[in-house]
Amino acid sequence: MLVKPHSRVPGLFVGRQPESAWNRVRLRSRLLDAVAQELEMNRRDLMKSCLGAQWGGGLAQSETRFLPGSVARVEARIARLLLRHTWTTTMSSSDFRDTLQVTYDRDGVVGHGEGAPIIRYKETAESARRAAESIRDFLASANPWQFEKVMAEVFQRIEGEYAAKAAIDIALMDWIGQRLGVPLYKYFGLDPADAPLTTFSIGIDTPEATRRKVREAEAFPILKVKVGLDTDEATIEAVRSVTRKPLRVDANEGWKSKEEAVCKINWLESQGVEFVEQPMPAAMIEETRWVRAHVHIPIIADEACLHPSSIPGLAGAYDGVNIKLDKCGGMQEAFRMIQVAKALGMKTMLGCMISSSVSVTAAAHLSPLVDYADLDGNLLIANDPYLGVRVEAGKLVLPDRSGLGLEARL
Ligand code: MG
Description:
The chain is of the alpha/beta class.
């Protein structure tokens, strides 16, 4: 930024000044003051523009100040998301999903977070809401700039309830990004052009309904098909009667023996399936290792992979891991999981539950780091309250606005 030394000196060039020694001294003094003022403003501007690429520890004191007497207002409420189609997997079937929405409101900036409770892990929207409310006072007085320390304390204070943890973490990260004036992908040092294609998910249904859903998903170049029941062959044949697109399948632990899994996976390979997610129950790690040795396409862990500590035990049995903010407890934990998996030479995938654009956009901001994305949970609902990440010809397009970059739908 150029210094404009004369622009802030009052009266400097208004009319002619008498040429006297005192006047020259006074003018010189005022000019120097003005230059110093400009330089100080430029320094602050430069600091501000650099802050976006830095972590909390490098922040200038002026940027981390709060308004006098400021505390945060934290609210947790349950949102009912209505599904466009009845959603069926090997685990459940429903027409709606309830998620926990958390807002973190401080100094006029509101961060939004969301977590989708997973019934498999004995979480419900109500248990998530109670968990978030149990630490409302702690969050209200905690220093959000120390978000890593804050979330470590949240993990200490709450047993389980990872959807609640995710909602709190995302709300804090959204607030931090907005205060710094940077999109969260930029905060993590990522290039939005590296965001991968996302799959569009086709839930288990009748062959006729499956064909209709596949036609509706015409804009997506890769589909993810739910399998894991006796109807698998009929489902894939229904899909293949409509499209030759690459497919990925998710068995959601549906195949109960290693022999059945090998048979199904090898047939799926012949149908153009790229990889299989969670073929057998999460606890059957050794059986999955055996299956991996007898098939050619990658096997990705989902239900078997919850937290960073899960990953080393899966290396060798799985080719990669599906990381979800709702399973692990937010963006910070998901970032750690991606790094652990990469360090072990495993493929990485970001997935989601059925959620609004709050949670899906949070995951999307990390997506330039991963090999595969399955971030379509917001596209499966009819009443998304926000606009965030978009999908163009299957590619995730990250918002360039600060924080999550959400906009309320009118
Ligand atoms: Mg899955």
